[in-house]
Specification:
single chain; alpha/beta; nine-stranded mixed β-sheet; 11 helices; 9 strands; about 45% helix
């Protein structure tokens, strides 16, 4: 396990997160299993590219520990990740959000998952670091995916899953050789509408390309993801849920509704109804936030369903496009 070489890719886009970016890099440098390299991929922001290049120039010259790259594809998270994959030298590629910090044994737990040669991806557990210091009382744990974190309903321990979550995940480099890269046009594009699901679409394509592939989540591989105050508001919750519906429609268009919505059916028919019941029970018992959590779940489902309908109509009319082109198109040179 100790000889497993990980390239860690951190996609960045704004100087507003400067301190967060430095903290993310520091958490990689502090790993009990040292990374081969950290790749900072800057999404079409020349000022940030230059600033990071200067910040890590000495590191790159001495040990090539941190490399700064420009996103060589179209604007957005998917192309940024593809740029990192194309430049990575490690046998394994791990992804960390630019506003998150990894616990010390993060990579070590990832590495343990690859003892089985059939394992193509290992994800971890993402914990919310709320700007206010604690979870809003109305915010249901079932919807923690809204803020990029592990949510109630995911299995515990070290278990097989359909897809890993992109901000806290790792893949064998050969997984991308088999399936291609992340599809552009599905995921986020800076501060625009908070789309997602690019990792879901990729993982489904990976399973189609390699039917014997195993994808795992090991919840010991923990990162702490910063949740800014704006994302603690109900307006963002509703917008993000709607955007998730739009994204799911694109995934269904790419891989088919049967595979694209397989996990979501269990989530909407079992996990969410249980969450509503729990919220209503807390309301009856006089516990704070119970009614708000139940109402948020219902609103979130309605918003996501609405987004899915709109996204499906757009896809049928040809108004929504995306591409999962070859990684070769995303190759970039270090700055």
């Amino acid at each position: 396990m100790s000889d497993r070489a990980f390239s860690v890719v951190i996609c960045v886009y704004t100087e507003d997160r400067w301190e967060d970016i430095l903290a993310a890099v520091d958490s990689v440098r502090a790993q009990s299993l040292p990374a081969l390299e950290t790749l900072l991929v800057v999404d079409h922001n020349p000022a940030l590219l230059e600033r990071l290049g200067k910040e890590y120039k000495e590191s790159a010259a001495e040990r090539e520990e941190v490399r700064v790259l420009a996103n060589a594809g179209p604007r957005g998270l998917s192309a940024g990740r593809n740029t990192g994959i194309a430049a990575a030298r490690g046998e394994f590629v791990a992804f960390l959000d630019d506003d998150a910090v990894a616990e010390r044994d993060w990579l070590r737990y990832f590495a343990e998952g690859y003892d089985d040669r059939s394992v193509m991806a290992v994800g971890g557990r993402t914990m919310a670091a709320w700007a206010s210091g604690r979870r809003p009382v109305w915010f249901p744990e079932e919807f923690d995916w809204v803020v990029g974190c592990t949510y109630r309903g995911l299995p515990h321990g070290k278990v097989r899953v359909r897809n890993v979550l992109g901000g806290n995940a790792s893949f064998r480099r050969s997984a991308f050789d088999a399936s291609g890269g992340f599809a552009t046009g599905i995921g986020r594009d800076g501060d625009k509408r908070p789309l997602g699901c690019e990792e879901t679409e990729l993982c489904i394509r990976l399973a189609e390309a390699l039917p014997d592939a195993v994808l795992l989540i090991d919840d010991r591989a923990v990162i702490h993801h910063k949740v800014p105050a704006v994302r603690e508001r109900f307006g963002y919750f509703r917008t993000r849920a709607y955007a998730e519906g739009l994204s799911k429609a694109l995934v269904a268009r790419s891989v088919g509704a049967a595979k694209g919505l397989e996990s979501e059916r269990r989530y909407t028919t079992r996990v969410l109804p249980a969450g509503v019941v729990r919220g209503l029970r807390d309301m009856v018992l006089g516990r704070r936030g119970g009614a708000g959590r139940a109402g948020a779940i219902v609103t979130g489902v309605a918003a996501a369903a609405g987004g899915y309908v709109v996204g499906s109509i757009r896809a049928r009319r040809g108004g929504a496009t995306f591409s999962s082109g070859p990684l070769a198109e995303s190759r970039g040179e270090p700055e």
